Amino acid sequence: MTRPVTVDALLGEGVRQLSAAAARTPGSARLDAAVLLAHVLGVAKARLSSHPERPVDAEGAARYRHLLARRAAGEPLAYLTGSREFWSLPLAVTPDVLVPRPETELLVERALALGPAGAARVADLGTGSGAIALAVARERPQWQVVATDVSARSLEVARGNAAALAPARIEWRLGSWYEALAGERFDLLLSNPPYVAADDPALSALRHEPPLALTPGLDAFAALRTLVRGAAAHLASAGWLVLEHGATQGAQTREELVLAGFRHVRSHRDLAGHERTTEGQR
User: Fold this and answer.
1) Angle at 180 (CA atoms; ends 175, 185), nearest 5 degrees
2) At 112, is the secondary structure helix, strand, or coil?
3) Domains of the chain and any CATH numbers
4) Which class for 193: exposed (0-12), middle (13-18), buried (19 or more C-beta within 10 A)?
5) For all residues of the chain together, what is the average pLDDT?
6) How much is the pTM?
7) Helix/strand/coil for 261
8) Burial bucket for residue 232 (CB in 10 Å: 0-12, 13-18, 19+)
9) If DSSP codes are grouped into helix, strand and coil, which group holds residue 103?
10) Is pLDDT of 27 > 70?
11) Of 10, 149, 193, 272, which one has the fewest beta carbons inside 10 Å?
C-alpha cells in the first residue's frame, strides 16, 4: 500500500519544480508552491508550516501537481486559485480578465484624492474584473459609479464580484470606451487601458492573459489617445481624467492631455519608481 505524501514533501517538490522554471515564472517559488497547496487543501497558508506532517491523499496530490505544472508553464497564480486581492478586496478572476496588479492601486488612490468627499458621478472605462470600480465604490459610498467594458465575459466576472462585495452599487455597461456613456458627463473618468504594443516581446510573458486587455494593436498609445481626446465630451466642469499607462508613456500622456486642453496635468510614480498614472482636469 502506497503511503500518503506529506505536506512538507509536497511543498519541497513544488519549490524544486517552480525554481527550475524561474526564468519563466516570476515571483517566489516557495510562496507560489505554498499558495497552491493551501488552495488545494482548503486551508490557510500558515497551517502548512504548523502541520508539515499532515498526509495528503492521492487525489489532492494529483491536483496540486497539475496546478504546479500550469504555474511552471507561466500561467498566473490568480487564474489557478481563481482569486486575487486588490485594495484589500478578494476578487474572483478568470482568464477572461486581466489579473489586477498592485500598481493599479495608485489609480484608485488618485481618484480618491481628486474626487469630492460627497456625491459624484464616476466612470471606470475598461473595467475588466471590476477592481477599480469596486475599490472606489467601497471607499466612497456616495459616489455613483458606472463601469464599462467591451467584453461581455469580462462584465460577467465583474458583476459576480459586485454581487459579493457591492450589490446594486455599480451600474455595468457593455461598450467600447465612451460608447456606453453617450450624452453623459462625470466628475471622474478612470481607466487602466491596454498600452502594450502588439509586437512588444514583453507580451510573451503575458500570453495567458486576454490580449484585448493588454494591447490595442501595433500602436501602443492608441487606447490612451482615444481616452484623452474623447474625455472632454464626458467630463463635468472641472472634472478629472485619470489614466494608468506604461512606465515610459508618462511624457506622451502629459503632452496629449495638454494638447487636448487639460490643466493641472501631472504624473505619479508607483512603488517601483515608474511613472504609472497621469491625470488632467477639464
Assistant:
1) 150
2) helix
3) 5-75 (1.10.8.10), 83-281 (3.40.50.150)
4) buried
5) 93
6) 0.90
7) coil
8) middle
9) helix
10) no
11) 272
* Edge-to-edge strand ranges of the sheet holding 235-244: 170-174, 143-149, 120-125, 186-191, 235-244, 275-281, 263-269
16-30, 138-152, 199-213: which range is least confident on average?
Answer: 16-30
How many CB atoms within 10 Å of residue 272? Answer: 9
Cβ neighbors of 141 (< 8 A, separation 6 or more) are 169
Cα 84 to chain centroid, rounded:
9
Residue keyed to cell 491523499: 57
For 256-265, what is each residue's pLDDT tens digit? Answer: 999 999 999 9
Residue 57 contacts by C-beta under 8 Å, 6 or more apart in sequence? Answer: 4
Burial class from Cβ neighbours inside 10 Å (0-12, 13-18, 19+) for residue 19 reads: middle
> Does residue 123 contact residue 182 with C-beta atoms inside 8 Å?
no
pLDDT in the model for residue 187: 98
pLDDT band at residue 52 using 50, 70 and 90 as cut-offs: confident
